Amino acid sequence: MPADESVPEQIRVRREKRDRLIAEGGEPFPVDVPRTSTLAEVRARWAGLATGEETEDVVSVTGRVVFVRNTGKLCFATLQEGLSLDSSGERLQVMLSLAEVGEESLARWKADVDLGDFVSVTGRVISSKRGELSVLATSWQLASKALRPMPTLHKELSDETRVRQRYADLVVREAARDMVRTRAAITRSVRESLHAMGFVEIETPVLQLVHGGAHARPFNTHLNAFDTDMTLRIALELFLKRAVVGGVEQVYELGRIFRNEGIDSTHSAEFTMLEVYQAWGDQTSIAQVIKKIILDVADLLGSRVISTPAGEIDLDGDWRWLGVYPGLSEVVGEEITPQIAAEQLRKIAERHDIPLDPAWDEQKIVMELFGELVEPTLIQPTFVCDYPPAAQPLARPHRSDPDLIEAWDLMIGGLERGTGFSELIDPVIQRERLTAQSLAAAAGDPEAMQLDEDFLAALEFGAPPMGGLGLGIDRLVMLFTNAGIRETILFPLLRPED
């Protein structure tokens, strides 16, 4: 049968080996193979062997072949095991000699095994003449035949290839495996911190009849069982608040969020969000919760000082509070108040070459100017507070200034990491704000929230005063790793290839 010219040669050769093994009665993908020890366990137990020392201790180890060198009577290979909490992909040398495994077994190894294959090797633990801890094989078995070649270990994969073929990236690049472990450690730390503070973790619906909890464009879908249009959630907020109404006074969820918006180095269409709600709290008390979460992560990773391209961040320093209007006034060199006219703000924007939408009102312009001129300068932890009401429709009016709301954004390294509020619990005011949002949606704003009658009914049932926060887990990982969002998300959403 002629070879399929459309299949790359290396893939064709490996497929032919698979077919040959089956024809010979072998099994290129067995259900089970011998395994008594992980590679990490072998390294830990026999780390003290002297150069050239041999033992009579027999182990069976498994791993992916990431290096192979076949000579006449002696073959060397390096096995790599998978990622675990205790290992970032430990490697160990195995040796196959004619004297130990026999002529037939050695010949099969040379003929059957390629880079990328998984194998099981049984043999004695020794230290080679060069001092390399090894397993000297007495037998071996193919565990899984790789039908595609591995990337070359000593060559860098392109950024695009690394992200699209994360499975290959994890095999060949230790930094990719470290990112998985670091992210797992961070999410575990977040949960442990909240558990220690008495918070209860719950899960809320991903499919929702009404999209709300944030100003964002949703993904739309259809539920065939009910013949009903639905959306994927854009926030966790509204159902968590329902739980607080029901008496779960300290509650959180760490879950996936979906927003049908732009994708760049700091934004993804799907991402992981932490939201926390604390009855009998406010924006100040909930700020202490997010601060403890972040400091606990820093302590777990070993340092409260983070070096970034924007400068050194000292998490042990002062976490200051900065009002939006005073902060903007300082940067532009003139006083900005909630009473300022839109025309004056447009002149300021023009001086700083900041484009504005003609439809934006004073509050929206203030937020745009602050985001462009002030936020990038906030390297040290800063709670940006005292926003105009348009910034957060679900935040409580400020207790001392009706032109502001009790809400903050936590800026670290010039980037928003989280947000917090004194939550709005007055159902009358909440109805007014959601009605205004629904009117904006009807007028064509795709990001405006819808009127959620069930949520309003829950508030009318009675909600205690509460503070709430949202923390982007991806951006938290970015803070501690200096990586882009596509690196912190293991399998990010990508544009389809042609």
Automatic annotation (TrEMBL):
Record's cofactor remark: Binds 3 Mg(2+) ions per subunit.
Alphabetical keyword list: Aminoacyl-tRNA synthetase, ATP-binding, Cytoplasm, Ligase, Magnesium, Metal-binding, Nucleotide-binding, Protein biosynthesis
Single GO MF descriptor: ligase activity
CDD domains listed in its UniProt record: LysRS_N
Binding annotation for Mg(2+) 1: D409, E416
Keyword Acyltransferase appears in the UniProt entry: no
Catalyzed reactions per annotation: tRNA(Lys) + L-lysine + ATP = L-lysyl-tRNA(Lys) + AMP + diphosphate
Cofactors that this protein relies on: Mg(2+)
This enzyme's EC code(s): 6.1.1.6
Metal-binding in keyword set: yes
Subcellular location: Cytoplasm
Pfam families, per database record: tRNA-synt_2 (PF00152), tRNA_anti-codon (PF01336)
Coiled coil regions in record: none
Binding residues for Mg(2+) 2: E416
Oligomeric and partner information: Homodimer.
Database matches in NCBIfam families: lysS_bact, PRK00484.1
Family: Belongs to the class-II aminoacyl-tRNA synthetase family.
Name recorded for this polypeptide: Lysine--tRNA ligase
Lineage: Bacteria, Bacillati, Actinomycetota, Actinomycetes, Propionibacteriales
